[in-house]
Structures are given as C-alpha cells and as structure tokens.
Amino acid sequence: MNILVLNGSPRPKGNTKQMIEAFQNGAASRGHHVDVVDVCKLRIGGCLACEYCHTKGKGECIQKDDMKEVYALLREAEMLVIASPIYYHGISGQLKCAVDRFYSAAYPNKPPKLKKVAMILSSGDADMYDGALFSFKGDFLDYLGLENMGVFTAHGAQNGSAAKLMELREFGASLS
Q1: What does the alpha-carbon distance between residue 153 and residue 76 come to, in Å, rounded to a whole number?
Q2: What angle, rounded to 10 degrees, do the helices at 15-29 and 162-174 form?
Q3: Per-residue pLDDT averaged across 82-93, rounded?
Q4: Which three-class secondary structure string do you get for the chain?
Q5: Contact 59, 53 (CB under 8 A)
Q6: pLDDT tens digits, one per residue of 19-62
Q7: pLDDT of residue 39
Q8: Residues 6+ apart with CB under 8 A from 129
Q9: Are 15 and 155 a contacting pair, CB within 8 Å?
Q10: Alpha-carbon span 61 to 42, nearest angstrom
C-alpha cells in the first residue's frame, strides 16, 4: 500500500517525528511504501478561496508552490496519515495550510486511490485534541469519506516513550 504521511511538525527530531518514524518502520516491515512530507520545510500558501480550482482550473490550484509535490503523492496514496503537534487545540498552521489546499485535490472527486486515513498527534496535555479531532472527522471521515484507521495521541511523558513508539510500530505493521 502507498501511504502518505504529512508531518506538520517544524522540529526535525521532535516527538511527532519520532512517532512518524516508528509508524513508518512498522509499515515498511510489512512491505508498505511510506512517503513522509515535512510540510514545514515546504513553501505552501494557504487557500486563496479564489475558486479557480472549481472553475477554470478543473481541479488544479492556481498557486504554483510546493503543494504540487504533495498533490503528486496524494494522487498515488491509498492511505493518508496526518501527523502534528498540537498548537492551540489544533494541528500546526503549516499543516493546516496544506490541508486547506485539499480543496482543489478533492474536486470534482477525492483522489481515486485514497481510501484510508489516520492521525498521529503529540501534545503536552491530554485535553488538547478537540480542534484536531473535529477537523479529522469533518474533513477526512465525513467530507472525503475515508475509512478511519485510528487516532494515535501522546501527551506529556508518553511522548517518546518506548510504549508509545511500539504502539505506532505495531499499528504500521498491522496494516493490510
């Protein structure tokens, strides 16, 4: 299976990245192909709400930035993993810009191979996930109609723990 992970953390060795790597190792151990895109390293503008993609663009965004790399991987992905630290109860702003740009990628239909979605979240507190979970449900489960493969969270001392990283490795290895 082709899996696309969008990493919304600006920290190259942070908790979110550790969780992604554990998931990636587990998935790769079962023969899955995993692309990890560090969106914070890319130049991705927010959606302009210009409607070009839904009119003249026929599904193509008018902006010519690094989102084109994400669009190419998204077209081939069978599963999407949204991974982010929690900032003010939601995903990072950099990742939010990329997610908002799915507006054109999902027009007139969602990417044809994309069937599954999961979320990986890191936080300092267990009660910080509401905004991210609202987006996950509304944007990916309801709007795109993707199969929920799970939400994996780590907060406080769970971040970087052997038990949490094993949970992510096992999740990646369990995918069929």
Answers
A1: 26
A2: 40
A3: 96
A4: CEEEEEECCCCCCCHHHHHHHHHHHHHHHCCCEEEEEEHHHCCCCCCCCCCHHHCCCCCCCCCCCCHHHHHHHHHHCCEEEEEEECECCECCHHHHHHHHCHHHHCCCCCCCCCCEEEEEEEECCCCCCHHHHHHHHHHHHHHCCCEEEEEEEEEHHHCCCHHHHHHHHHHHHHCC
A5: yes
A6: 999 999 999 999 999 999 999 999 999 999 999 999 999 889 99
A7: 98
A8: 86, 89, 121, 123, 151, 153
A9: no
A10: 16
Q: Which two tokens stand for residue 68?
A: 């084109």
Residue 40 token pair: 């914070």
The amino acid at residue 175 is L
The token pair at 39 is 């969106």
